Amino acid sequence: MAWDPFQEHLVIGNPETGGQVYGVNPNDLDDYELLGTAPGMEQGIALDIVSGDIYTLADNSIGCLVHDGYGYEFETRDLPAGFHDANITSLAWMPTDADELPLWLFCRPDSNGVIYRTNHYGDRYDSSGIEIYGADEGWAGGLDITTDYDTGMHRVVTYCHTADDQDFIDVWQGQAKEFVWIQPGMRSGRIEVTGHTNEIEVHVDLAHLSEPVYPGDFLECSLELYGPHWEGELLSIVVYVVEAEEDADALPGRFTLHQNHPNPFNPATEIRFDLPVPEFVTLEVHNILGQRVQTLVHRRMEAGYHAVAFDASRLAAGVYIYRLHAGEFRSVRKMVLVK
Questions:
Q1: CA 179 to centroid of chain Cα atoms
Q2: Model confidence pLDDT, tens digit, residues 37-46
Q3: Separation CA 21–CA 14 (nearest Å)
Q4: How far, in Å, CA of 267 to CA of 316, rounded?
Q5: Which long-range contacts (CB under 8 A, 24 or more apart) does 111-119 make?
């Protein structure tokens, strides 16, 4: 099962009824709705709370109930071949995975608890695995992820059943990897003739860095090149941060919810978002349990670049989530209030 903090219901799948997936009110189990059906469902549910998509295991593949804004449509995606015999017991969604492999799979290929990672299409994955426990056959499975309490660590929760029939919950923490802020636009290429050149385009994303950058700052990195005539040659890259030139008449090209600034903050911060077209906008702040603590915007807004101030002086320190809903666009980000 998975928890949807915005719909405030549990997402539960039942393989015995043909893979039906329900949203269930945890306070009243007779209050539920059918969300969709994942044929061939085996076990495990993971929820992407940003898109609303639901993932499960289905006949050695990834079953996905894709949310189109109105309901769910079922799709089947390839499970990486190396995972077919991994004895996967459960799934979880890690939206901040540094390698953009957000679908985490808890496995027990032998006597060890191991986490593998893949993207939501199953065409890019990490099969090296993270061994989190040298357990015996008592492992029952179960995986959940949270960054509550310590925002620098991801808490991975698994379940163990001991020999004397007592149930325990083991909580493990792992250090989050740094977001990869620069990526080459091409993974391979060739120079046909000696003396010719080939341009390498790089894509830079500074919006998701753990620490903000400002005009005048610079970042350094190296691009490692491999080929028949060199082995691991380093190409140095320096990125200078400059003030963006603003066109008062220009409109955003897409919907975007930006990271709040400053972050962490005390007690006020600013949340910016971009609207390429006029839309009815809802901007809410939730605590880590998904409970709404404040509505910042709930009205129709014109296209353009928008900024909203958020004063958290009456709230306790901790991790908060802010959620933008504009038309069919939905996006969620985290922020940290310190006191």
A1: 12
A2: 888 887 788 8
A3: 6
A4: 10
A5: 111/135, 111/136, 111/137, 113/139, 113/158, 114/86, 115/143, 115/156, 116/83, 116/86, 116/88, 118/62, 118/79, 118/80, 118/83
Q: Does the pTM exceed 0.70?
A: no
- Please report, to the nearest 10 degrees, the dihedral formed by the alpha carbons of residues 146, 147, 148, 151 taken in order: 180
pLDDT for 278 beyond 50: yes
Distance CA 105, CA 93 (A): 9
Which of 61, 52, 43 has its CA nearest to residue 93?
A: 52
Structural tokens at position 90: 């459960």
Distance CA 172, CA 143 (A): 11
Short-list 210, 306, 290, CA closest to 256: 306
Please tell me the distance from the alpha carbon of residue 7 to that of residue 285, in angstroms, as a whole number.
Answer: 14
Cα within 13 Å of Cα(5), Cβ side: 19
Where does 119-217 show beta strands of DSSP type E? Answer: 125-133, 139-146, 153-161, 167-175, 182-184, 202-204
